[in-house]
Amino acid sequence: MSSVAMRDDIARLRGSGERSLRKIAGPRENDRAMIDIETGSANVYADLGRADAEEMLVKAQLASKIGEILKRRKLTQEQAAEILGIP
Length: 87
Description:
α1 (3-13) runs antiparallel to α2 (18-25). The two termini are 46 Å apart. By secondary structure, the protein is mainly alpha-helical. It has helices at 3-13, 18-25, 44-47, 53-73, 77-84.
């Protein structure tokens, strides 16, 4: 964002209070929010408690791999559907 654009945004927010200005300018050094971060496993579906977590993970990996192949071959959706036999 250019300094002119930032100045314009700040000018528009002046009436809405200092807190809104910090959204653009960033937090002050002594005003940092603390949040808890939990490290997940390699399977987000298991982390969410899905009973079919392994199956969902395999499906997601398969969809990702198909997407990579389609992109590498530069296929359109129509061409991919024809190859896969999808009407």
